[in-house]
Design goal:
By secondary structure, the chain is of the alpha+beta class. It has helices at residues 23-30, 41-44, 47-74, 95-106, and strands spanning 2-5, 18-20, 36-38, 75-81, 88-93, 115-116, 120-122, 124-130, 139-146, 159-162. The chain folds into 2 domains: 2-45, Ribosomal protein L9, N-terminal domain (Ribosomal Protein L9, domain 1); 67-162, Ribosomal protein L9, C-terminal domain (Ribosomal Protein L9, domain 2), CATH 3.10.430.100.
Length: 171
């Protein structure tokens, strides 16, 4: 099925693009959510208008989020966790935990789906990306340390956030 995107869709395309998608994805998600319409000849005539409106909207949103992105870049999150002698955590640090810590610190709601990272299962320094918009994706530093130890930061950071202890998970 060919659809015309009305809004930017992460990992699919920008507004105004015509994409070929699976029938179920288009019929059950994109069209009901108002993200796309069927690529009919009448809809294709409106491509330039949709692209122009979307680029203005995207530029405005990126401008608003750039200030938040600068704040996010300066943050270093520190998570205490229980770990074995090899440095492997008994639980893991998940995207939900990072999103909650960022939301608490910034006072802005960050969804777990905006945090791009694999679950962290080892002590040390890690990086995660926070997708604020389709174009603005700042990177944050995450330090995982043993419970009871003090955190040693390699470089001076503007802001440090001590996050709650990692939950133990039955794996």
């Amino acid at each position: 099925m060919k659809v015309l995107l009305i809004k930017d869709v992460y990992k699919l395309g920008h507004a105004g693009d015509i994409k070929k998608v699976a029938d179920g994805y288009g019929r059950n998600f994109l069209i009901p959510q108002g993200l796309a319409v069927l690529a009919t000849p009448g809809a294709v005539k409106q491509v330039e208008q949709i692209r122009a409106q979307a680029s203005v909207r995207r530029a405005q949103l990126n401008n608003e989020m750039s200030g938040l992105a600068e704040q996010v870049k300066r943050i270093t999150l520190a998570f205490p966790g229980k770990a074995g002698e090899t440095g492997k955590l008994y639980g893991s640090i998940t995207g939900q935990m990072v999103a909650d810590a960022l939301s608490t610190r910034l006072g802005v709601t960050i969804d777990r789906r905006q945090v791009e990272m694999e679950p962290i299962r080892a002590l040390g320094d890690h990086k995660a990306r926070v997708r604020l918009t389709i174009d603005v994706i700042p990177e944050i530093k995450i330090v995982v340390h043993r419970e009871g130890e003090t955190v040693q930061f390699d470089e001076p950071v503007a802001e440090k956030v001590e996050a709650p202890a990692a939950e133990e998970s039955a794996e």
